[in-house]
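[retry 2/3] DUF397 domain-containing protein: previous attempt timed out, resubmitting with same input.
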Amino acid sequence: MKTALDLSRAEWVKSSYSNGNEGECVEFAPSIATTAGVVPVRDSKHPAGPALVFPVEAWTSFTSAVRSGQFPPI
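[retry 2/3] DUF397 domain-containing protein: success.
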């Protein structure tokens, strides 16, 4: 059975890879990862919109790949 994840008290952090012109901004909630084992991610331009939720292991793998340059810039 799935349960809803309460993000009402989540502290969101803007990704250091987001550009500074308020365009492509991604935020994540690392404190939720500590307590729930998942990492919520959202579009900072739409904070009331939906959040995608990833297992910590998948998020760690993704961010490691970004840092190492495995994704070419668009």
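[retry 2/3] DUF397 domain-containing protein: The first strand starts at residue 13 and ends at 14.
[retry 2/3] clearing retry counter.
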